Amino acid sequence: MDLIWDGVTEALRLIFSGDSYVYEVTFTSLLVSGSATLIALVLGLSIASFLAFRAPPGRTLALSAFNAGMALPPVAVGLLVSIMLWRTGPLGQLHLLYSRTAIVIAQAVIATPVVAALSTAALQGLNPNLRLQVLALGASRWQAALLLFREARISLLAAAMAGFGAAISEVGATIMVGGNIKGSTRTLTSAIVLEVGQGDFETAIALSFILLGVILVLVTLFTVLQQRRPPA
Amino acid sequence: MAVRLASLAVLLTSLALLDSSCGGDRNELILGATTSVQDTGLLDEIVRAFEGVTDYHIKPSIGGSGEVLAKARRGELDVIMTHSPADEDKFIADGEGLDKRPVMMNFFLIAGPEADPAGVRGAASMSEAFKRIAGGQSLFISRGDQSGTHLRELSIWGEADITPQGQPWYQESSTGQGQNLVVASDKDAYTLVDSSTFTVFEKRAGLRALLTDTEKPNIYSVIRVASDKHQNVNATGAIAFAEFITSPAGQCVIADFGMEEYGKSLFEPAARCPSANVGG
Amino acid sequence: MSDPLLRLEDIVVERGRHRILEVPSLDIVPNEVLAVVGPNGAGKSTLLRVIGQLERPSRGKVLFGGLPISGNPLPFRRRMALVFQEPLLLDTSVEGNVRSGLSLRGVPANERQRRVEEWTARFGIGGLRRRSARTLSGGEAQRTSLARAMVLEPEILLLDEPFSSLDAPTRESLIDDLDAVLTTKRVATVFVTHDRTEALRLGDRIAVLMGGNVRQLGTAAEVFSSPVDSEVASFVGVETILPGRIRQLSAGLASVAVGDNTIEATTELQSGADVLVCLRPEDVIVSALADALPMSARNHLRTTVTRVRPAGPYVRLELDAGFTLVAHITKQSLEELALSPGSNAVASFKATAVHLIPHRPA
């Protein structure tokens, strides 16, 4: 228990002493997981719109796949992305392995099924006639999608939060494709793993609290946005 | 749909730019290293020092010796630093690597509880100590992960002519070096550990270093991956790294590492560091 | 009749192996309210979606202003507006909802504001403009939905059972308001309903849609007095329906001019109102000329029998009284009265049996 208390104190000290290492890994985590969440949102919402609005044949099968994808083992994703990005792999010429971009790709692969599955459920929860009504009001397909996203924003923001949570808390794939390079691909989670490996449990716990704090602050912002009354 | 694809393309392009550190292709050097090098924090120091004197950017690929060698055989790595002599020799014999040079070393030691119920402290050799542990049925925690440490442990059991697998007193933790030590400490058990990791965890783990194997040091070597076999390999970068790490500058990075925090070097450089005045 | 604004040609809609709509031809004429009636599942909503460019038919084409609609339907969709049974409001203010279609079209802000103010006022929700749509009653919400459609000043207004989920008093007042709007601001309207009173109230022409087919299309009198077949008859309920105007009113008893005749009816409407006079065939008592007339009936019309047709257990008579009047009598009565085409007869009915529905003159 002492360790946890020490960890909290150490976390506060690191934050308020302006420790550059902590700020650096926090920044990397936010940048990488933020980008991954953005990509997951673009892909996930496109998939969800297609599945929910077009109702293509095989929708149930596709939905099952995405629902299962929410439980995609990150280590398996890391391995697959690594193999794709290996120099001898199909995307080797891009030289992306052991870079932030590689982590963004892996985290996006992990977060996309989460966003896609939850967003599909959110859009399917809307009154099916609402889309017709919006189209009848003269919306283009693009305008209709935006208006319906707005109607489903509470559930969609929950999907975005879940996607972001999956991305920023991920570590297995992050280390595998990123290499845990100080100053480049070291994120809060991979730094925690390293500190544990070095036996520095205080710092590891401190970083864990900082990670929790970052998630809490961001999710609170998201939640405030989500619960806000719609503008007139 | 076109708008969506276009915005996705813009997003991906901007992401590629997000890696300011990834520079030009030829400056990228992929270093395969073992977990102990990263876990102790030495790797960060080596990367910082090497990037300070060259234009190369190191991208470390971390794994056990077995994993690193397997990736090197696929041409995924440019240069490797491992500590599994037999496998390394086979790697070179197969024409996959060249120019093996020792970089640094540490020693394997048996860690165990202060009380030492099996009497490891008085043993004449490592295999003798293992026999005592087996005889006393004292709990032993093995890495069990085909790492360099695990392979060494298995060879000692071989010398002692004991098959520990399946015995109730023999457990495999399947974790990294540091974690393994914490597990052993938790269970008041014996385990085999390298001296660098032990130094880092000494305060944390309640275990004592009972017997150190000074006869067979654990030697880390640098090997360049054969560029005639794998066309993607950055041969000049690999040479630059091998030269640096065996040079006095590189050796001093190793010698200095751990001085500040633990009062001694975590790894012993293979050659001398001219400026090192504090003995390890 | 003027040139059609919109024309359906050989429209077929299939879902899997089911043919749910088949309309060889249907015109929507400027300024006209076409009421589409039919039982549930008749294909009414599908018809509306095909017209509104929300569903592509399996076959056939839709012509708008004489030009076939092909390619991107958006420009055509933007010339129409659709109101559903549910208000389907967006989660924003009343004003935001009424404005939404204009915003989607990029109408400038000041023009937008002027039109929003005009149409919220016309539908009696001017005072609710800032209210959140979530807090509206059913009637207020449907008014908002109607204002949101009309503010677009559509060339064709499509209404899909817009009053069905409202309680009776709310429905009445909203129908009154919509009627007033459609009277002053004539717009071609397709009004889908399963309620014949609503259809009579608002429709200039009535189309009966059953099993995906338009079984009958004509004026209210044609459809309700002369259904083409028994299926249509059993759905619409045969009635005599006559356009008229209330001439006089005393103590709730109206004298309604119908052609050259005057019919007395009980009503709550005002004098001078244009109405449809509705009379159920079973409420008409037919007597031979010499017989004593039933004294309780206020209306007695001299007629000539034009047609006698057995219809199940009773006989359907068509009587010419200057207009066609339908009556049902028993077979025994027919024999006793010895009626046949050409015979004279008196048709009597109570003032309370006459139902007056307000209706714009044709």
Description of the structure:
- Helix content of chain A is 77%, strand content 0%.
- With 232 residues, chain A is an all-alpha fold.
- Chain A is globular, with a radius of gyration of 20 Å.
- In chain A, 52% of the residues are buried.
- Chain B is built from twelve helices and eleven strands.
- In chain B, the strands form two sheets. In chain B, strands 2-1-3-10-4-11 form a six-stranded mixed β-sheet, with helices on both faces. Chain B has a five-stranded mixed β-sheet with strand order 7-6-8-5-9, with helices on both faces.
- The model of chain B is unreliable at 20-24 (pLDDT under 50).
- Chain B has two domains: 25-105 and 219-269, Periplasmic binding protein-like II (D-Maltodextrin-Binding Protein, domain 2, 3-Layer(aba) Sandwich), CATH 3.40.190.10; 108-212, Periplasmic binding protein-like II (D-Maltodextrin-Binding Protein, domain 2, 3-Layer(aba) Sandwich), CATH 3.40.190.10.
- Helices cover 26% and strands 36% of the residues of chain C.
- Chain C is built from ten helices and 20 strands.
- Chain C has helices spanning 44-51, 74-77, 94-104, 109-122, 138-150, 168-184, 196-202, 220-225, 230-236, 331-337; strands spanning 6-15, 18-28, 33-37, 59-64, 67-68, 80-83, 156-160, 188-193, 205-210, 213-218, 240-250, 253-258, 261-266, 274-279, 285-287, 299-311, 314-320, 324-330, 344-349, 355-358.
- Chain C is globular and about 75 Å long.
- The interface between A and B is large, with 34 and 43 residues.
